[in-house]
Amino acid sequence: MEVVQEIKCKSWDEFKSLISEYTENNDYIFRGHADCSPDPPNGWKDQRWKLQSLYERWFERKLALHPPGMLRDGENFSSEDNLQPRLVRFRKCLIPHYPQAANWNPFNLWAFGRHHGLITRLLDWTWCPLTAAFFAFEAFAKVRLPGIEIGDYQCYESYNLEECLFGCVSVWALCLSNLPSFDEFHIHNSTPPEPGATRQRAQRGLFTELSSTKVYDLEAFMRQKVVSDHLVRFILSGTRADIVLNDLKAHNKSYSTLFPDPEGWTRDSNLHNGTWGNTW
Question: Which of 70, 123, 161, 257 has its CA 20 to 30 A from that of 64?
Answer without folding.
Answer: 123
